Structures are given as C-alpha cells and as structure tokens.
C-alpha cells in the first residue's frame, strides 16, 4: 500500500498523462466483490468505457449550470424549508439533536434526486432508518481493517461471529434499499413524472431511459449506481455539515461574522446559489471547514495497472495507492498555521475569495482530482452553501448547556467518512 501524502504528488500521479492511464482503477476489496459483483457500479469499477458512461449519465442529472442551477434549488429548498420549520419549533429547547435533523433532511434530498418525488410522510421513518443503517454498516465494513480481513478470509462471512453478522446485516439492508428505490411503481413514477424535472429527470429515471437503448447498462449496474449515490450522497455531506455547525459553535466569532456578511449583502432575501459571489467570507469558511475537518481522510483507494516510477520510487503493478487527504489538509510543508481554524487563509487582502487557480486553493483537494474525482463535488458544495446560508440567516447555533465533541476529527467515529459522535445544541431565532 503506497500513501500519497501531498496534493502535488496526488495530482501528478492521478492526473498527468504520464500516469493517469494506469493509476485510476480500484483495488480488489470485499465490498467490490461481494456487494458490487466485481465493481458493477461507479465507485468500485475500474477505469473503463462503461465507467466513463456511468459517470457521464450521473453528471447530466447533477447539471449545475444554466437551468440546472434553478432545478437544483427547486430540489433542495423545499427540504431546507422543512428543516427551518423544525428548527423554529425547537428554539425553546435547551438541547436539539442537529445531527438527526441533518440526517433526515439529507435523506429527503437523496430521495428527490433518485426518484423525482418528495418523500411521503407515511414512508419517512422507515426510509430514514434504512438509509442510516445501510450507511453505518457499509462504513464499518469499508474501514481498512475489516475490509482487509474479509478480503483475505471471505469464508468468515459464512460462519457465526461478528464478521458474518456484519456482512449479513449489510446484505439485508442493501436489499431493502434497492427494493425500496427500484420498486416497479417508483421506477414508473421516475420515468413519467413531470411535476419535477432535474436535468434530464431523476437519476433512476435517466438510467432506466438509457437502459432502453443501451443493453450494456444492466440492472446490476443500475443497482450499483443507486447504492453509490445513497452512500456518496449521504454520509459525506452529513459529516461535512455536522462539522461546519460544530465549528460554528466552537468559533462563535466566525459564526457572527458570517451572519453579518449575509445580513449586509443579502438582507432578508432567501439566499440562492447566485449569491455565492457576494459572500466571500462565507465561501472561505466552508472551504476552511473542509480543510480543517478532512472528513474523507483517505479518499477511495486507487490501483496501479502497470509498474510505474514516482519520484525515484518504483511502484509495482497491482499496488494500492492511498490518497492521504488527511495529511495533505494539515501538511506543515503546504499550509501556513495548519492546525488553526483560519478561514482568512482563503481571502486576499481586500477580503475577496482567492480565485480557484490560486496556489492556496489548488492545494485543497477534499474531492480528490482527475478521472475518478468525486462526481458529487458541485452537488455537495452547492448543498452546503444553501444549508449554511439559509440556516445561519435565520438562527444562531449555540453550545448552551450541551457538551460538544472535540473539533479534532481524529477523535470522531472512525469510518470512511468521519462523523462526530453527536451534535446537540441550543437554537436561537435571529431577529
Ligand atoms: C462533502 C462532500 C463530499 C466529499 C468530501 C467527497 C469526497 C470524495 C472523494 C475523496 C472521492 C474519491 C475520489 C478518488 O477516488 O480519487 C469521492 C468519490 C465519489 N463520490 Fe464523493 N464526496 C462528497 C459528496 C458526494 C456526493 C454528494 C455524491 C453523490 C451525489 C458523491 C458521490 C461520489 C461517487 C459516486 C464517487 C466515486 C467516483 C468514482 O469512483 O469514479 N460524493 N468523493
């Protein structure tokens, strides 16, 4: 296993023409073989024409330009409204469970993204618990130690004991997720629905339409992409939002400055994605949270197709490359004051956000880079922007009498996506 410890090396190895054809596969893993039938999805597939096709289809649905921006807001805002209403009712409580509230809100959005339909009240509780359980079990198995044990001794899944129990639980929850999202009545709705249009339609609807003309796109692949999105679209952004709001409570002066920027530049208007350029400090805070928390610590491993040489080291074919995003975010060789929460690092002397090609921005790569970079990057960033601006415009988030977890993410729940143990707070309505 080779750890790539700086943004410069990660970019060189994953994106430059000298390497990229041979560094963008995925290594063998228990989940790849046993849940995704050898990588019949996006996240675990090797780099091949089919993967390119699946990524392209997903991108057409997450179309965050032109009319797509408006569609995206139409998808997110009603769900943020539900959350705002819930928070408004909690303003008299000493302790409100923000972690659970984000979880439900994000699951609602995934539901619309996949199906074009808002989650119905009668199904909500069951869908929340199914998605949460599936994510928890998946995250436990994908952790390096469990994944390796099960890859080396796959028969462990068939005998009584904790490993077998975990695998059986995952299979059961996986089936439940697919049964729910790919039920024939839901798929028909996805195909036909006209009351909501996101890009070419919902992700499932778009995949089904493609499948009508492309026999290469099998049911197994559609299942794979659906579970990728349930995993990718949920635990990553959940950890990020929890982290941002935890830091807002730990650094109330940052929270106040961000709110002042919203008040001064947007006032009482509902924030929209078009406001991003008006809010440099807010953008800088979001970037700094991604750096400071580094909640996807080791990315997703890559696999080397042929022998290569990196900076004088020979890396044999079939080696696993780990993008050590955890280290790159606080590398003392890369960052000034790496252990300080310091959003100003992303602003110039006039308070403008540094351009995206500025070296400081370029070395922040929480979504990785190149052919396998996160396909949900703009989706995740836009969603975080709307949650942060809309919630902080209306409420102040205070610690109150609640005990907050450490801001050091290495003490959080250890999974593929780091996540604080809890996030309880006091919510105060802003006048
Ligand atoms: C803050 C939120 C997120 C972060 C930090 C994040 C980070 C990452 C990282 C580091 C990778 C691995 C890239 C590589 O292999 O080099 C990845 C892959 C991926 N992400 Fe995300 N992600 C986020 C949100 C999302 C969302 C919202 C979705 C879906 C809508 C998503 C879907 C995926 C998928 C499908 C892949 C696999 C891509 C491939 O293998 O080709 N992610 N993400």
From TrEMBL:
Cofactor list: heme
Gene3D superfamilies linked to this entry: Cytochrome P450
Organism expressing this protein natively: Lottia gigantea
Family (UniProt): Belongs to the cytochrome P450 family.
InterPro entries reported for this sequence: Cyt_P450, Cyt_P450_CS, Cyt_P450_E_grp-I, Cyt_P450_sf
Keywords noted in UniProt: Heme, Iron, Metal-binding, Monooxygenase, Oxidoreductase
Annotated positions binding heme: 374
Protein name per the record: Cytochrome P450
GO MF terms, alphabetically ordered: heme binding; iron ion binding; monooxygenase activity; oxidoreductase activity, acting on paired donors, with incorporation or reduction of molecular oxygen
Transmembrane regions listed in the UniProt entry: none
């Amino acid at each position: 296993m080779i750890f790539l410890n700086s943004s410069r090396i990660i970019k060189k190895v994953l994106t430059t023409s000298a390497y990229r054809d041979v560094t963008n596969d995925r290594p063998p893993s228990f989940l790849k073989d046993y849940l995704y039938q050898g990588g019949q999805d996006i996240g675990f597939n090797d780099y091949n024409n089919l993967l390119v096709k699946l990524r392209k289809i997903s991108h057409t649905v997450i179309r965050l330009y032109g009319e797509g921006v408006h569609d995206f807001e139409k998808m997110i805002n009603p769900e943020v409204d539900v959350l705002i209403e819930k928070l408004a009712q909690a303003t008299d409580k000493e302790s409100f469970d923000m972690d659970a509230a984000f979880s439900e809100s994000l699951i609602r959005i995934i539901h619309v993204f996949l199906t074009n339909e808002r989650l119905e009240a009668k199904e909500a509780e069951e869908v929340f618990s199914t998605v949460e359980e599936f994510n928890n079990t998946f995250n436990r198995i994908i952790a390096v130690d469990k994944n390796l044990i099960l890859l080396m001794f796959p028969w462990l899944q068939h005998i009584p004991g904790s490993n077998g129990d975990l695998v059986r639980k995952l299979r059961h929850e996986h089936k439940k997720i697919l049964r729910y999202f790919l039920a024939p009545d839901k798929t028909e709705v996805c195909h036909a629905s006209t009351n909501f249009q996101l890009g070419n339609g919902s992700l499932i609807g778009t995949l089904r339409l493609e499948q009508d003309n492309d026999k290469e796109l099998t049911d197994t692949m559609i299942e794979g992409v659906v579970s990728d999105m349930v995993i990718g679209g949920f635990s990553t952004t959940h950890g990020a939002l929890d982290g941002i709001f935890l830091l807002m409570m730990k650094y109330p002066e940052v929270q106040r400055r961000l709110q002042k920027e919203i008040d001064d530049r947007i006032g009482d208007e509902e924030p929209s994605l078009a406001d991003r350029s008006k809010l440099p400090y807010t953008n800088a805070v979001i970037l700094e949270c991604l750096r400071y928390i580094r909640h996807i610590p080791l990315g997703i491993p890559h696999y080397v197709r042929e022998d290569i040489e990196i900076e004088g080291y020979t890396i044999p074919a079939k080696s696993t490359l780990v993008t050590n995003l955890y280290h790159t975010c606080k590398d003392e060789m890369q960052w000034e004051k790496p252990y300080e929460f310091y959003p100003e690092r992303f602003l110039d002397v006039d308070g403008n956000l540094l351009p995206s090609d500025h070296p400081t921005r370029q070395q922040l790569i929480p979504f990785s880079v190149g052919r396998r970079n996160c396909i949900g990057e703009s989706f995740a960033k836009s969603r975080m922007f709307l949650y942060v601006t809309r919630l902080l415009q209306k409420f102040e988030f205070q610690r109150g009498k609640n005990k907050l977890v450490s801001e050091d993410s290495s003490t959080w729940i250890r999974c593929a996506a780091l996540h604080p143990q809890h996030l309880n707070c006091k919510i105060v309505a802003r006048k």
